[in-house]
Amino acid sequence: MDSKEIICIVCPIGCRLLIEKDESEQMGYKISGNKCKRGFNYGIKEMTNPTRVITSTVKIKYGLLPRLPIKSDGEVPKGKIPRCMEIINQVTIQTPIYIGDIIIPNILDTGINIIASRDMETF
Ligand code: SF4
């Protein structure tokens, strides 16, 4: 693959980036279509080490709702996300839970925690 088009998701403008392999460039890729340096950095990261914040839910007992929204407190390598989701889907917690509480520490030894995205009192 010598070139790839992706949408930059760093800000709402959503620039369309064209990424071309180019050994003459310091990072090994030429990037065009970005309106700012953050788009360049995003394009390089997407080609070399793509990562994402995980957002999902876990089962919760005794709460107002049957599931609690959760997210990762940092970005997880994209290749590890399916395994992270398997772990997240096995978890059941109990109320009370408060926003920012750690639900799964250091998931898959990434140094990233899965945390609660909202409070949930016992119902
Ligand atoms: S390149 Fe810059 S301006 Fe364009 S979407 Fe990415 S962050 Fe926003």
Topology:
Blueprint: E1 3-7, E2 16-21, E3 29-32, H1 37-48, E4 51-52, E5 55-61, E6 67-72, E7 76-77, H2 81-90, E8 92-94, E9 102-104, E10 114-116
Parallel strand pairs: 5-8
Antiparallel strand pairs: 1-2, 2-3, 4-7, 5-6, 6-10, 9-10
Bound molecules: iron/sulfur cluster.
Iron/sulfur cluster binds at residues 8, 10-11, 13-15, 34-36, 38-39.
Keywords summarizing the entry:
single chain; alpha+beta; 2 domains; five-stranded mixed beta sheet; three-stranded antiparallel beta sheet; elongated; binds iron/sulfur cluster
What does this structure look like?
The protein is α+β, with helices and mostly antiparallel strands and 123 residues long. It has two helices and ten strands. The N and C termini lie far apart (54 Å). The longest helix has 12 residues, at 37-48. It folds into two domains: 3-48, no CATH class; 55-116, Roll (CPE0013-like fold), CATH 3.10.530. Iron/sulfur cluster binds at residues 8, 10-11, 13-15, 34-36, 38-39.
Q: Could you give a quick summary of the protein structure above?
A:
The chain has helices at 37-48, 81-90; strands spanning 3-7, 16-21, 29-32, 51-52, 55-61, 67-72, 76-77, 92-94, 102-104, 114-116. The chain is an alpha+beta fold and 123 residues long.
Question: What is the alpha-carbon Rg in Å?
Answer: 18 Å
Q: Which overall shape is indicated by the principal axes computed on the Cα atoms?
A: elongated
Instruction: Indicate the CATH class of the largest domain.
Output: Alpha Beta
Derived from helix and strand composition plus strand pairing, the structural class reads: alpha+beta
Topology, number of strands: 10
Q: How widely separated are the two ends?
A: 54 Å
- Read across the widest sheet, the strand sequence of neighbours is 8-5-6-10-9
Uncertain stretches: none
User: In what range is the share of β-strand residues?
Assistant: 25-35%
CATH superfamily membership of the largest domain: CPE0013-like
Mean residue pLDDT: 96
Helix/strand order: EEEHEEEEHEEE
The helical percent reads 10-25%
Number of domains: 2
Bound molecules: iron/sulfur cluster
The number of helical elements comes to: 2
Question: What is the CATH architecture assignment of the largest domain?
Answer: Roll
What is the fold-level CATH name, i.e. the topology of the largest domain? CPE0013-like fold
Please outline the major beta sheet. 5 strands, mixed
